[in-house]
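Postdoc handover notes: sequence design on the structure in folder B. Input tokens:
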């Protein structure tokens, strides 16, 4: 059976030694968020995820959710509701929310280790509170004062949960095609009518009310994405005084049957003239929804990281225990009937790949989370702007790469287990099934690639890339003359220069042929991800050397970084070659000839 133990040593190393979050918190006005506060929180989060959530993971997968067609109600797996009660009583749902709305007012990045632990322990359960934070953000930044007073505290404390209702049966990413309508009615309310699909936690039995944030069109809405507005639509109507009233005209019409995350309710939601309230300005709903969507995308990136971490832990344990054949250079454990498979180079390749992607990915993801805090609380407008540009640039990399690496790592873990990985007994096939969905929801990998290449790089003239390359340059300049870092700094500087040149070359070709952007996007996403991890692995070695960590930990960081530079960073060569080939190999074949 799959097991999980929170990787507290590496989480603490990432936060305190590598990112030095305490210095940032002091500058941002979070003086109370010191290590004496954060360390006990990490311990308690590890306890909760390991002893409360992890034991429910297999049961949630086997039991799934139960949908009652007559009532439209959804019942979660046994133990899920009790775990949610403990979650809210512990104050976890409002960790980084403002104190004025019932939260603890801690920095956003402090909540990221908790998210990672929940995702490792029980991804399906973690989907129920996942979107409440984003819903609260959208209301905090765009909602009227009375909406904030009525809904925010209950979302922050977890008394109610929130959803994002975007996709419809006839439109996925192209929200300009959506048909859900919003008709004005009395008292400033609107009647919302339409069908939304793939709604995570759209219906469940964990809370008495569910708050849906719904994209819809007003009667005078212009066509396309510029005619979309955002509305808050509760499952039970809520008065301006905060009192919960009668059932609203919103109902779960079905629950999707999925290949993974069986314990999570993925719902079809039918709105039949449901009472809703406008959030933000008419026809500006996408802007308000993106406030919610960006933090959700970082959260899904952490889902890929969490599953990869759990897969690594179990593959490592099994590889140490499983006896099979001998090392090619001779027995390593002659007193045993065979050597453990961890002596085999190919098993080590898979384990080291997982270790390099997990620990490097943790640094990448947590650093992006730190930009959320800098963008909101930095002292100068210039620093806030730069953090926001960097966050926008990093978000599709975190979401796209960490989830795809999660799929890769769960695959490697299956390979380490061999045939035992394919059967349900060891729990590895569940991790592989669950990981697949992370590459799809909150925007597929292709959508993340287009966002990075098109909007975040071409349209914004590479502002986020320049900010990241500035970090690389400062770090490399600091390490010049340090012989212990020379093996990493030279290759990193070369890749940074190549990254910049590659981006400029794509932009030049795209000016003549816009298809260049779509043709390059996928490979540019992963090229960017691998170079970003090269930076974080070099930083990790330097931070470990300067830390008080045990020598074995420092040595492990250095050797893993060497593996990364030797075995994984060269993947950029293939991605660059694909980009340089242009759109012709993709577009030359006539559509009708695909089945020729």
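Designed sequence:
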């Amino acid at each position: 059976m799959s097991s999980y133990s929170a990787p507290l040593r590496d989480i603490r190393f990432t936060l305190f030694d590598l990112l030095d979050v305490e210095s940032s918190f002091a500058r941002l006005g979070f003086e109370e968020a010191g290590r004496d506060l954060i360390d006990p929180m990490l311990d308690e989060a590890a306890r909760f995820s390991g002893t409360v959530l992890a034991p429910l993971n297999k049961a949630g997968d086997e039991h799934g959710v139960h949908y009652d067609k007559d009532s439209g109600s959804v019942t979660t797996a046994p133990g899920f509701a009790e775990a949610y009660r403990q979650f809210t009583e512990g104050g976890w749902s409002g960790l980084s929310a403002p104190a004025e709305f019932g939260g603890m007012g801690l920095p956003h990045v402090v909540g990221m280790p908790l998210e990672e632990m929940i995702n490792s322990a029980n991804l399906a359960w973690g989907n129920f509170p996942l979107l409440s934070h984003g819903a609260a953000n959208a209301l905090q930044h765009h909602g009227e004062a009375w909406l904030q007073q009525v809904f925010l505290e209950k979302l922050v404390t977890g008394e109610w949960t929130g959803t994002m209702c975007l996709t419809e049966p006839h439109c996925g990413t192209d929200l300009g095609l959506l048909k859900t309508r919003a008709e004005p009615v009395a008292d400033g309310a609107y009647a919302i009518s339409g069908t939304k699909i793939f709604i995570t936690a759209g219906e469940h039995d964990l809370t008495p009310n569910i708050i849906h944030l719904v994209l819809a069109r007003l009667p005078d809405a212009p066509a396309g994405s510029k005619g979309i507005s955002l509305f808050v639509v509760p499952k039970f109507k809520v008065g301006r005084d905060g009192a919960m009233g009668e059932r609203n005209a919103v109902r779960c019409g079905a629950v999707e049957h999925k290949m993974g995350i069986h314990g999570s309710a993925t719902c079809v939601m039918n709105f039949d003239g449901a009472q809703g309230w406008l959030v933000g300005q008419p026809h500006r709903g996408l802007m308000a929804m993106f406030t919610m969507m960006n933090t959700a995308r970082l959260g899904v990136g952490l889902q890929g990281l969490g599953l990869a971490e759990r897969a690594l832990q179990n593959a490592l344990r099994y590889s140490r225990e499983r006896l099979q054949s001998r090392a090619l250079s001779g027995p390593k454990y002659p007193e045993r009937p065979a050597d453990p498979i961890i002596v085999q180079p190919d098993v080590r390749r898979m384990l080291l790949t997982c270790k390099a992607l997990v620990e490097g990915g943790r640094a990448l993801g947590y650093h992006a989370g730190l930009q959320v805090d800098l963008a909101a609380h930095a002292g100068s407008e210039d620093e806030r702007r730069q953090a926001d540009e960097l966050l926008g640039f990093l978000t599709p990399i975190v979401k796209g790469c960490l989830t795809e690496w999660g799929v890769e790592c769960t695959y490697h873990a299956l390979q380490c287990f061999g045939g035992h990985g394919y059967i349900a007994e060891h729990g590895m096939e569940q991790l592989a099934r669950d990981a697949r969905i992370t590459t799809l929801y909150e925007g597929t990998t292709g959508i993340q690639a287009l966002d990075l290449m098109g909007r975040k790089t071409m349209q914004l003239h590479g502002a986020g890339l320049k900010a990241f390359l500035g970090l690389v340059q400062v770090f490399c300049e600091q390490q010049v003359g340090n012989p212990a870092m020379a093996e990493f700094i030279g290759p990193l500087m070369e890749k940074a220069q190549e990254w910049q040149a590659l981006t400029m070359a794509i932009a030049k070709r795209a000016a003549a042929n816009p298809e260049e952007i779509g043709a390059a996007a996928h490979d540019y996403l992963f090229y960017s991800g691998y170079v970003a991890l090269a930076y974080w692995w070099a930083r990790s070695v330097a931070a470990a050397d300067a830390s008080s960590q045990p020598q074995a930990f420092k040595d492990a960081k250095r050797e893993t970084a060497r593996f990364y530079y030797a075995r994984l960073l060269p993947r950029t060569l293939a991605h660059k070659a694909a980009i340089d080939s242009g759109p012709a190999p993709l577009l030359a074949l006539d559509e009708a000839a695909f089945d020729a």
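Context for whoever picks this up: The mean pLDDT is 95. Don't rerun without checking with the PI first.
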